[in-house]
Structures are given as structure tokens and as C-alpha cells.
Amino acid sequence: MSLFKKDITADLTPTKTEMDVLQVLWQYGPSTVRFVHDKLNEQKEAVIYTSTLKLMQVMKEKGMLDRDETNMKHIYSAAVEESRIKGNMLGRFVDSMYNGSPSDLMVALLGNDKTSAEELKKIKELLKNMDDK
Question: What is the dihedral sign for C-alpha 54, 60, 61, 64?
């Protein structure tokens, strides 16, 4: 048994449903299963409570969630950082879809009709700020 906790974020890719749970916990902080379940039901078709409970228990076993058992109601919290998980997933996406090329990804993003003039302005400002550093 290791004395040090392994960095699970290096090779962790949550499923879509696991990401939904993590998004709720990142947004609202430590929460009960009931709270997470209710938020998930607001976002999509009805989810059965026991399915949410089991999913969160499995996520705890995988190391994605922590569980505070000091009170009668167990409180779950994300054990993984949002920026690390999203960065890892984005990296894998860029590698698989754009041969690891961030510029090819940007061309695809900016070349579609979903990018508003306001978003383009923000991106230009961000790039300008990066050049100034």
C-alpha cells in the first residue's frame, strides 16, 4: 500500500454522466446526493435517485469524489480540480481530433457561425494581452 495518493487526474477521463455530477459539485460546492440529483433532473430527463447515488458511490471509489460521513447526511465534494480535468480532456480532444494542433482547433472554432463578434473581440483581447507579456 502506498503512503502517497496517486495523481488520478493524469489519466482520468470522466464519462458524460460523471462530468454532469462534477459540474454540479464544481458550481455549487459540497452537496448531498439529493441536491446533485435534483440539479441533474433540472438539466435533463428524469434520473432515478438510486442511479445518482450509485454513480456518486462509484465516483468516490474511482477517486473523483470525496465523501464527508461525519453527519447523518453524507456530503460529497469533487476530489479533482475542474481546470485539471478540463485541461486533460481538452488535450486529448486536440490530440485525437486535430493531430495535437491548437491552431487547427482555433481555425475550426473561429470558422464556424457560432462564434459571435463579441467572442471574437474577447479572443483578440486575450491574444493581445498574451503578446504584451
Answer: positive
